[in-house]
Design goal:
There is one protein chain. By secondary structure, the protein is of the alpha/beta class. The protein has three domains: 33-124 and 200-233 and 316-357, 3-Layer(aba) Sandwich (Rossmann fold); 127-199 and 237-305, Up-down Bundle (Butyryl-CoA Dehydrogenase, subunit A, domain 3), CATH 1.20.140; 379-489, Agglutinin, subunit A. The protein contains 17 helices and 19 strands. Strand 15 (446-450) and strand 16 (454-458) form a beta hairpin. The chain is flat, with a radius of gyration of 28 Å. The two termini are 55 Å apart.
Amino acid sequence: MTRRQRFAVVVVMLASVLAGGVPPVSAQQDREVVFLHGFASDGDTWRGTADALQQVLRLTAHTPTTRWYTWMEDQANSLQGGYYWLPDNAVAVGHSNGGLVARQWARQRAFDGIVTLGTPHEGALLAQRVFAVLDANMRLYNIMNMASGMIRNPGPGLDEVRPLVLASLLWAGQLATITVRELTSTLAVSFTAPVIGQMVPGSAFLSSLNSGGNLAREDHDIRRRVGLIFVAHEYWKMGPAVGLRPELQDPAYNATQVAIAALESGAFLLRRYSVWWPAQQVANLLREGAQILRNIDPMWCWAVTNDPSCATSHDGIVSTPAQFYPGGQNYGYLGVPHVWQTRQGGPMIYDALHRDIGIARRDNPAPGPPPGGPPPGGNNNEGVLPSGRNMTPNQRLYSPDRTYFLTYQDDGNLVLYNDREGRPIWASQTSGTAAGTLEMQGDGNLVTYAPGGIPIWASSTAGNPGAFLEVRNSGLIVIVAPNGTPIWWSGGQ
């Protein structure tokens, strides 16, 4: 090639770029997105959500495991060593402490965006107060164990009260045991880990990270910073369960209320009708145990938010105010507790990556529409299929802005379309089956049935009574529990 020919090629390429003939890099290839786990966790916690997001957005997901117990600076250095090759338009998504590690990592390299979920930007007070919670639960266990042993002995008053309180004594002791076990397996057992001190509000690490100079650097170097803030469903009710074992929240709360009533009633009866000193001693133990049970939620709120009245909300582990990303765009969500955010936060992360960071949707190889475009049918413009309702073939359920609609086609395929572009973006891959009805069942399961009631496809979300289906403006279909928690979405579970 002659010099004149090379010059002509350069001119043509430059003109093409200036005219917009070459699409931006983000439109040509997947974006590199690194998902960072939090305290006492590993990269596997992200696998399901990261893989699902990878299916619907143009991104390549990475889910490394860091030594979460070491200094956050060391975790960031380790990530930089393993991912030194990332391009400048890479994105970091961090849950809990993973968000702090992402911000620390950004001091060493460029990021186009950082998304944090439930991250204690202002510190996790529980890291400082975990032993106070442990002490109260150990005291409850000892009191219940002592009372249980004494009340089994025959004596005036004890024989009459025993059937009333024994089951509640056993439950209170079990509750204390579960709380102690879960806490010691996470925070308390790692109390000597260097990272614990960095998590405490006002630590030197957090003060440096949130200093005016570093925030100004983030504002200049990171194009988009997004904080996803979560408030757990009824966070004020059985706080230890919300923080440690959310699936136990309702049964634990109900059993605890019964136990409080039983223990207080037993103490009253013993004090009133028995003067025998062992019975009086048992009455004192029952009353003290009931008081500790009553104080469970105020104490947990105090340990997490410094507010024993529980007026300050939290996600079970981190207070709401502490989750705000300084200088970032923050969005609040109700329903998802801290330990479930990597598993149930997919729709929220999708919105942040697509809406705020600008990662494009991936063309889905779902079956195309029948000849002539999407099938005609009756329309439902509410964007919601309530619990107990159904759709018949070719009906449409539109998103509120009418960009997307879900339809149960007469070929048996359940398909989500972009109506403006006339293309499918998700499908159940069940074409070629007989179409009957799409049912949003009362048990929370979304099911397509062939004629005769034969199930063909299901979301596998039974066990969530009252859940409903939404078609969202973001281009997702989401099954939502009555408390607002997403339990399934079209990118995955």
